[in-house]
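sorry for the late reply, my laptop died twice this morning and i had to redo everyting from scratch. anyway the thing you sent over, i finally got around to it. pasting the sequence first so we're on the same page, its 462 residues, then the predicted structure underneath. double check i copied it right bc i was rushing
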Amino acid sequence: MADRHFDLIIIGTGSGNSLITPELADQDIAILERGTFGGTCLNVGCIPTKMYAYPADVITSAQHLDRLGASFPCDPQVRWREIRDRIFAGRIDQIAAGGEQYRRQDPHITVFDGSARFVGPKEIDTGTGATITADQIVVAAGSRVSMLDVDGLREAAPALGVHTSDTVMRMEELPRRLTIVGGGFVAAEFAHIFDAFGVEVTWLQRSGSLLRKEDDLISGRFTELAAERYDLRLGTQISAAERRDGAWHLTTTGPSGSGEVVADAVLVATGRVPNADQLGLAEVGYRMDGPRLWVDEQQRTSVEGVWALGDISSHWQLKHVANHEARVVAHNLAHPDDLRSSDHRYVPAAVFTHPQIASVGLTERELQAAGRDYVVKVQDYGATAYGWAMEDQVGVVKLLADPETRLLLGAHLMGYQASNLIQPLIQAMSLGTTVPEMARGQYWIHPAIMEVVENALLGLEL
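ok and here's the structure:
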């Protein structure tokens, strides 16, 4: 028998922490959090990485001044601990601690800090010695980093220089040589950050390209740029790892056979896995979606009264998706007779590497596989007035549209401020605005860099 019954149980304090709206504030609520309040985004993900990426952007931009007729007379002097402490001691850690204190002092909320595990469809072992039940449960327990099946690299060991995104931002000192393993957005962002900070970056990717989920044009061009900037080794895997003489000696296999990489630190950035398997969900009868907890359009699981959101159930490991789903769940908890559905039609994403990358909708590869008709326009930044000002040589916008409906099907950008330039395209797709309406239904500021989007729209032959 359970020790206590609640109106609502929330597992996870990332986007799950935003579920307690004024409509639910008087309920008897349990919050379960085994780690740090605030979840991945606040503590080890989106926010701190961008706070590192910004100074890296400034440094990298300054290094490209030569083509504009200017330069700095010396290399940048990076004060790592000052940057780190500004981010964590100055911002992140205070927010996380404040969020926890705020919840703990609420008389309607009980916080459990153990590792939760379901022992029945709606009964939870809190990991603190107490077992609890509730009328409604929200599972928002997120995801965790995946590691390599190689001795020495199977789990993070910061003291020995084996890092993940959870630990690498809190290092005491910058390593002289860093090897990054993986070809996704986490690897791309940290490669940019550490290279800009003066670290020798070796980047290992087991396939033949980086950011493979992006449109082929973006993935291909970015891979070419990365090969110019880093010691990039494609088609390469680590078969063994040994630490000796204060460094990691990584045995690799690749297109040219076996080799060795020597690094002071290793960053494993090979993706994240949902935490569903650690909660015992399948064992008590929950429907699963591969490694994820299954949910319907209203974020309901297969057990009545139990909801899920974010990385534990979503195919998109994105904070803005989790936040959207949290708003849907919060409404549905308070209004069971007026359920809302999540809208996952046009989910955008950005990679804060250099140059920035942003995308929404379908890629050309996906359209071809589906046999759909489309028109395409590729517009270079350098063909606009602001692109001339920057002497831009890499920025590009690629748009895909339906020739019959004249609606955008996909947008893929790489270059300066791509994460901002894509927003009007997301809006057009979400609101059903046609390409002609968007291109000529408003003013575009001249000579702003946004003209590259305008010109791409005008270039679609519809």
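The mean pLDDT is 97.
thats about all i looked at so far, will dig more tmrw
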